[in-house]
Amino acid sequence: MSQPLNQLSDRARERIPGHIAIIMDGNGRWASQRRLPRTVGHRRGMEALRSVLRTASRLGVGYLTVYAFSAENWSRPADEVNTIMGYLTRFLRTEIPELNENNIRLAAIGQLERLPEKARQQLDASIQSLSHNDGLTLVLALSYGGRQELVESMRRIADKVASGELVAEEICESTIASHLNTHAMPDPDLVIRTSGEMRVSNFLLWQISYAEWVVTDVLWPDFSGEHLLGAIETYASRDRRFGKV
Ligand code: IPE
Ligand code: IPE
Ligand code: MG
User: Fold this and answer.
1) Closest ligand 2 atom to 68 CA
2) pLDDT values of the chain reduced to their tens digit, one per residue, 245 residues
3) Which residues line ligand 1 (CB under 6 A)?
4) pTM, two decimal places
């Protein structure tokens, strides 16, 4: 692909979203359509992520959060879960040089303590080895659920109220935001969901209050940097009003 910025309209170039969040959906259907096991779809999904990441980083996007595994996805058959965890661990190990070359930092949100030990260790090591970079931050949502994140944050706030560190009357939006996994990042400007599903599926419930949505029928393994550019064009054509006139 030629320099992706040059493929955008002037309007879109001036409105690159600071934070893009993607619900990477449709791996299983992609595989079923080809009479392949669902796991092949997950492997191809990892490759799609690689391509989208490269484009986002060249565009100067600040944060790219990808929903890779939800808290509810633990209820899938053990074989599928294990294979996804294996691909994830391998991605985290083998992508380090490429992520480093692109000045990409890594972060993760979700109930990470539920991840298998090997995945967890590799995640920590990869985050650590990319921590000196200051380009795009890739945020992996792993074992993530928006409701679970809110519950945990409410507990931490309640503890602080009980201990006298916080006064209930002083709890405001920023108190809640600062107790979420995402406390160090801005809210998403653009949420993309692939595979045509029109639902949130427990993703970033608090953080997406005013995000713009782009839903595409493209299945995640087929999603590319070109599709990302298309979504950014759509985003740039929207009028974000935030409740004002
Ligand atoms: C998204 O693809 C990946 C994960 C949820 C882990 P799916 O596996 O949900 O694919 P479909 O929705 O069944 O096609
Ligand atoms: C959402 O997709 C989670 C991820 C993409 C990781 P799902 O496929 O799990 O969501 P539902 O079941 O269609 O709502
Ligand atoms: Mg799905």
Assistant:
1) 6
2) 569 999 999 999 999 999 999 999 999 999 999 999 999 999 999 999 999 999 999 999 999 999 999 999 999 999 999 999 999 999 999 999 999 999 999 999 999 999 999 999 999 999 999 999 999 999 999 999 999 999 999 999 999 999 999 999 999 999 999 999 999 999 999 999 999 999 999 999 999 999 999 999 999 999 999 999 999 999 999 999 999 99
3) 24-29, 69, 73, 84, 195
4) 0.98
Whether 230 is in a domain gets the answer yes
Tell whether 244 is covered by a domain.
no
Query: Catalytic one among 73, 100, 133, 202?
Result: 73
Active site residue 239: no
Q: Is residue 163 part of a domain?
A: no
Q: Which residues line ligand 2 (CB under 6 A)?
A: 23-25, 67-70, 73, 197, 199, 201
Number of domains in the chain: 1
Active-site residue, selected from the candidate residues 6, 10, 25, 181? 25
CATH number for 47: 3.40.1180.10
Domain contains 4: no
For every residue of the chain, DSSP letters joined together read ---GGGGS-HHHHTT--SEEEEE---HHHHHHHTT--HHHHHHHHHHHHHHHHHHHHHHT-SEEEEEEEEGGGGGS-HHHHHHHHHHHHHHHHHTHHHHHHTT-EEEEES-GGGS-HHHHHHHHHHHHHTTT--SPEEEEEEEE-HHHHHHHHHHHHHHHHHTTSS-GGG--HHHHHHTSTTTTSPPPSEEEE-TT----TTSSTTTTTT-EEEE-SS-GGG--HHHHHHHHHHHHHS---TT--
Q: Is 181 a catalytic residue?
A: no
